[in-house]
Amino acid sequence: MAEFGFNEHHQNEVISYMRFARSKRVLRLKTIDSCFEELKDSRLVEETFTVDEVREMLDGLQVVVRGDVEMELINTAHTNVLLLRQLFSQAEKFYLRLQSDISELENRELLEQVAEFEKTDFKTMDKIIQETSKPKLAPLNEGGVSELLNKEIGRLQEENDKLKARLRTLESQAMSALDEKTKAERALKDLQKVQGEQQLAAKSQEISSLEDTVAALKEDYERSLNVNAASKKDLQENLISAKHELLRVQEQLALAEKELDKKFQQTAAYRNMKEILTKKNEQIKDLRKRLQRYEPSE
């Protein structure tokens, strides 16, 4: 069984299980043989049988054989479960998790190797096993198991020490990172404080500049208002003066017209013109009278 990768102890365990399975197989085959022998002794007592009688005997034999085979298969499956239970229980005591590949149970090559081993070396191994005491499943208080357990504890302790050392290294790195973070936060706060003061000074200067600009604009506006007020007052005064001057000029003009008209009336041309107009008006009146005389109204 070296090709299966077993050590001597496990190889002996496999051989023991195969011997057990072989004994069960032989016992079941004997049971099946006895079923046929019983049929021969109990039913085959006559020389001739009808077809129905043969069919009835075969059907009965089939039921018996089928029941025995089914029972044996079920018993074999349950036996394998008990074997796995023992193996898994021992593995769990050492905190191990065993795994199985069900597909390998139908591996034809491995099955042929097992069959070949059973045919050739099984008898030789039986002799060797018979010379030695039959091994049992090793309990926990045996020397080999204790040694294995101590090795496992030592390995776990070594791994635990490595983890502790790694943890201390990580803690040291974490503390260094925390210090760096604290320094960075302090530097950031100082920088923000300086920037805040600079921004506050810049804003204060900007506000002061804006206040000066507003004051200058206000002063210019007030000056403009004063200038406008003075200009308005001067304009009003000039307007009043102009009105007074206009009235005076109009009055002088009216007097000049009256004076001119008076002077014009005193001239010889005016008197001659007036006399001519008077004569013309009298002539017109006389002509109207004559006309009315010659052309009386109807």
From TrEMBL:
GO cellular component, one term: cytoplasm
Localization in the cell: Cytoplasm
Keywords carried by this UniProt record: Coiled coil, Cytoplasm
A single GO BP: negative regulation of protein localization to cilium
UniProt KW Coiled coil keyword: yes
Coiled coil: 146-290
Top-level taxon of the source organism: Eukaryota
One Pfam entry name: Leu_zip
Keyword Iron attached: no
Binding partners and assembly: Self-associates. Interacts with BBS9; the interaction mediates the association of LZTL1 with the BBsome complex and regulates BBSome ciliary trafficking.
Entry function: Regulates ciliary localization of the BBSome complex. Together with the BBSome complex, controls SMO ciliary trafficking and contributes to the sonic hedgehog (SHH) pathway regulation. May play a role in neurite outgrowth. May have tumor suppressor function.
Family listed: Belongs to the LZTFL1 family.
Name of the protein: Leucine zipper transcription factor-like protein 1
